[in-house]
Amino acid sequence: MADPKKLFIKTYGCQMNVYDSERMAESLGGSGYIEVSGPEEADMILLNTCHIREKAAEKVYSELGRLKEYKIANPNVKIGVAGCVAQAEGEEIMRRQPMVDLVVGPQSYHRLPELEAKAGNGVKALDTDFPEEDKFEMLKARPKAKRAPAAFLTVQEGCDKFCAFCVVPYTRGAESSRPVDRILREAEDLVKRGVREITLLGQNVNAYHGIASDADGGGTWGLARLIRRLSEVEGLERIRFTTSHPNDMEDDLIAAHGDCEKLMPYLHLPVQSGSDRILKAMNRKHTAEEYLKVLERIRAARPDIALSGDFIVGFPGETDQDFEDTMNLVREVGYASAYSFKYSARPGTPAAEKGDKMVDAAVASERLQRLQALITSQQRAFQESMVGREVSVLFERVGRVAGQMVGKSEYLHAVYITGDVQIGEIHRVRIVESATNSLGGVLVA
Ligand code: 5AD
Ligand code: SF4
C-alpha cells in the first residue's frame, strides 16, 4: 500500500470552520491523506480562512507568502485556500499567489477530492460555486474512530438577515437547513464514537427550519423541536447551539431552556449595540429594549442561564451617547462572557458601500478598551460567583499537572480537579477556587 499523504489544515475564524476543517480532512482521507499537526512534512497545506473582520484577505496573502518556503523546498506540495476568503476572493488568490494550486469555497468543499486530483495533475483548481446539491449528502460517511467527548455539528448555514456590516450573507450564502434525519444520524454516529456533548452550529442557528421525514413525523421543524428530539438520543448528555439572532428566539426555544434538561444553561445571543439609532443603521431589525425583553423571558425560563454576546464599537456614525447606550446595556444584562470588536468596513457590505462617516480610529480604540474592561470585570465576577457552588463537569482531557483532569461546566467554564475520572465522564464538582481562565474544584462524593 502507498504511504499515506500528509495533510495540514490551518483553521481560522469561527466554530463552523473548525467543523468544516474536520469534514474536509475526512473527505481527503478517501484520497489517501492523513492529518498532521504542522506544515513541515505536509503534502498538502490547506488554509481554511475567515473573512468576517479586518484585513482578512491580507492576512491570508501574507500567510501564503510564508508558506512559499515549503513549496520551494518541495514543489510537489499542494497549497489550497478554503473558507470565506476563498469565496470572496476567488481567482484573485491564484493571480496574486500563483503557487496556490486549489481554491475552494465553503459550499463546495465536498468536491475537494476531485479538485485535489486535478491539482495533482498540475491543473489549477477553483470552485466557489453555490451548488444545487447538498454538500453534506455528497461528503463521505464520517469515520468510525473514537473521538473527543465534545463535538460540533453544523445544522444550518448562511444568513438572510443582512446586517449592514456583515459579509456572511455573501460568503456563506442564503439560509439553508439540513434535514432532520441527517442530523439525527450524524449525532447518533458521534455518540457511538464517544461524543457526549454536541454544539449545533449555524450562522443563524435559531432560524433552523429543517424538513423531517415521515418516520420522524414529517413537517418542518424549528430548532427547539430538533433539540427536543436530539435529547432523546441515548448517550448524548449535553446540547448547545450557536450563534443566534434575537428575532429568532421563538417561544418554544425559550421554553426548551426551562424544560429540556440536556440543553445547557448558556446562550450566545449577539446584540452588537445598545443604541437604537445604531441598531437601525446596522439593519438589526430590533431595538435594545426588544433584546432585553427576550433576555428577560429566557431568564424567566432558566434563571441561572449564562449569557454571552457580540458587540461592535465604532460603527459609522456612532456618537459618544450611542456608545454609552452600549455600556449601559452591558451593565444591565451582566454577561458571563462577551466578545467585542472594532468595526471594520468589509468590501461589498452596505455599511462599507454607503461610505458613512467613519469614527475616528483613536476614539474607536478607546471605546473598545472601555467596553472590554467592563466585559472582563463581568466575566470575572461571574466566574468568581461559582466558588462554593456545585457544577457538573464533562471531562475532556488530562491536565498539565500530574493527576489533574480538565473539563467544562454547564456554563462553559474550564474546570480542573485532581481525582480518578475518565475522559467522557460527567461528574458533580464543587468549585473551590477561581483562577484567571479556569476554576478549580473537588469531586462531590
Ligand atoms: N466589523 C467588526 N465586527 C464584525 N462582526 C461581523 N462583521 C463585523 C465587521 N464588519 C462581528 C459581529 C458578529 C461577530 C461574529 O463578528 O459582532 O456577531
Ligand atoms: Fe451576519 Fe449574524 Fe447579521 Fe447574519 S445575523 S448578517 S451572520 S451578523
Name the CATH homologous superfamily of the largest domain.
tm_1862 like domain
Strand order of the largest sheet: 2-1-3-4-5-6
CATH topology of the largest domain: the name is: pyruvate-formate lyase- activating enzyme
Bound molecules: 5'-deoxyadenosine, iron/sulfur cluster
Tell me the structural class.
alpha/beta
| Major beta-sheet overview | 6 strands, parallel
What oligomeric arrangement do these chains adopt? single chain
CATH architectural grouping of the largest domain: Alpha-Beta Horseshoe
Tell me the count of domains. Answer: 3
Give the CA-CA distance, first to last residue: 52 Å
Mean pLDDT: 95
Portion in strands:
15-25%
CATH class type of the largest domain: Alpha Beta
Q: Percent helix among the residues?
A: 25-40%
Radius of gyration: 23 Å
**Poorly predicted segments:** none
Number of helical segments with 4 or more residues: 15
Topology, number of strands: 21
Shape: globular
Keywords: 4Fe-4S, Cytoplasm, Iron, Iron-sulfur, Metal-binding, S-adenosyl-L-methionine, Transferase, tRNA processing
Subunit structure: Monomer.
Function: Catalyzes the methylthiolation of N6-(dimethylallyl)adenosine (i(6)A), leading to the formation of 2-methylthio-N6-(dimethylallyl)adenosine (ms(2)i(6)A) at position 37 in tRNAs that read codons beginning with uridine.
EC number: 2.8.4.3
